[in-house]
Design a protein that fits this description.
By secondary structure, this protein is of the alpha+beta class. The chain has 2 domains: 287 residues, Zn peptidases (Aminopeptidase, 3-Layer(aba) Sandwich); 111 residues, Alpha-Beta Plaits (2-Layer Sandwich). The protein contains 13 helices and 19 strands. The strands form 6 sheets. It has a 6-stranded mixed beta sheet, sandwiched between helices. Strands 12-14-10-15 form a 4-stranded antiparallel beta sheet. The longest helix is centred in the first third of the chain and has 18 residues.
Length: 457
């Protein structure tokens, strides 16, 4: 019985096909939470895959439901002793829609293998990462016979729908979810070959801005120069919010600064595009910040979509309206409740009273960031370094957004995320994939971590 034996047992699941076989079953379940006709698949994923694997490992299971949630959550528990540390883990079994455009020979809900990668919807986000953790747990139990700690595993089936209902489920079941720390896996590493921790997530908020000047199109030959053009007016309004190089002009949308220890950790990291990734454009974004600071410690304010007229069928007429969807991702230090009022105020002061700023239309994620010097960070990072031989990259927070605020703020837990994907995985797109070598490395890292969590301190 040894740590190395547990790591070897976990990694062997790649060679003997156990990992692939289960991932193929996961992928085949079309658990797209935003697709109405796929809602029964959410329950099926829990009934046919999650509950059996946890039951075999000696966990009790129960479903947690809320009317807002597109599907139930599963809480699996294995409590080995009142004097042992308690870990809460989180993952999600829902996916985005399959989409068209997959490469020849590949399809979203059939696991494919090509060039050292497994392809299929959910391989990276989040079924593949969930499979890593489950396989590592199985390896620990096979070698040690017990965990050596208490584990509560929460599986959500609505993360891709904005985690609707998750906050209420966690509030209703807060005593059952009590733990010493959240350790979860989602999102990408800094790079495919670089084990990574992130300690929170940037917040996210989206909303529409719109100008409705009149009810119908008007011929440009008759009315051009006499009637305002909402498309032109909206472009100038956006320019009052975002500079020509992407800098945010509304200060309430950015933090006051970057904490010194966050800046120190980021100074040790490098965002390096991989083959096939776009090249970083250093002239874009907040002046004076490094690329790492821009994406992990600052806000980004983007125009996601714009509508004006009909490009597919030109009418040679002045459009009656124009609208754009704006998205702000923000770190700790930005008051999300102040965002929409600040945008309205900035547009009014810039002379755009006709621009309507709508209330947020989608789920709002709050920003979270665990102190990089927190003891749990050192404990998890030390275990990964022991297995890998090199310190992991430590990101104060993910550049994207996750429901981490539910665990960090509502449940009051320190949060440490260990992602088992990478930036080029094409999650949410065609040809989503998981590199096999990354999965094998991640299995070893998690088996080593689980072993260390159950070892006497």
């Amino acid at each position: 019985m040894s740590r190395d034996a547990a790591i070897g047992q976990a990694r062997s699941a790649i060679a003997d096909g156990r990992f692939r076989d289960r991932l193929a079953r996961f992928v085949a379940i079309r658990s797209a939470s935003r697709v109405a006709e796929a809602r029964p698949e959410l329950q099926r994923f829990l009934d046919e895959e999650m509950i059996p694997v946890f039951t075999r490992m000696g966990f009790s299971t129960r479903l947690l439901v809320h009317e807002k949630a597109p599907g139930p959550c599963l809480l699996a528990e294995r409590i080995e002793g009142a004097d042992l540390p308690t870990i809460l883990q989180y993952g999600h079994g829902d996916v985005v829609a399959g989409l068209d455009g997959w490469s020849a020979g590949l399809s979203p809900f059939t696991l494919g293998e090509r060039d050292g990668r497994w392809y299929g919807r959910g391989t990276a986000d989040n079924k593949g990462q969930l499979n890593v953790n489950l396989t590592a747990l199985e390896a620990l139990l096979a070698v040690r016979g017990r965990l050596g700690f208490n584990l509560k595993y929460l599986i959500e089936m609505g993360e891709e729908s904005g985690s609707l209902g998750l906050r209420e489920i966690c509030a209703q079941n807060a005593p059952a979810l009590a733990a010493d720390v959240l350790i979860a896996s989602d999102g990408p590493r800094l790079a495919a070959d670089q084990p990574t921790l992130f300690l929170g997530a940037r917040g996210g908020i989206s909303f529409y801005i719109e100008i409705k000047a009149r009810e119908s199109f008007q011929h440009s030959g008759n009315w051009g120069g006499l009637l305002s053009n909402p498309g032109v007016e909206l472009c100038h309004a956006i320019a009052a919010l975002i500079g020509r190089s992407g800098e945010i002009l509304v200060r309430d949308l950015t933090p006051d600064g970057i904490p010194p220890n966050v800046r120190a950790h980021l100074s040790q990291l490098k965002v390096t595009p991989q083959p096939g990734d776009p090249a970083i454009e250093p002239w874009w974004g907040e002046p004076g910040l490094t690329a790492e600071e821009k994406v992990f410690a600052w806000s980004s304010f983007e125009v996601m979509e714009m509508e004006c007229g009909n490009l597919a069928q030109p009418l040679y007429a002045i459009p009656p309206s124009a609208r754009a969807r704006l998205q702000l991702r923000f770190p700790v230090g930005v008051d999300v409740d102040a965002v929409v009022p600040a945008v309205r105020r900035a547009l009014a002061e810039a002379g755009f009273p006709r621009v309507v700023v709508h209330e947020p239309h989608d789920a709002i994620f709050l920003a979270t960031r665990l102190d990089p010097d927190h003891p749990w960070v050192g404990r998890v990072a030390g275990s990964i370094e022991r297995t890998h031989g090199v310190k992991p990259a430590i990101l104060p927070n993910l550049g994207g957004s996750l429901p981490n605020d539910i665990f960090a703020r509502d449940l009051g837990l320190p949060t440490v995320w260990i992602p088992h994907s990478y930036p080029g995985c094409l999650q949410h797109a065609a040809d989503e994939h998981l590199p096999i070598a990354l999965a094998e490395q991640a299995l070893g890292l998690m088996a080593g971590l689980y072993w260390d969590l159950g070892a006497p301190q």
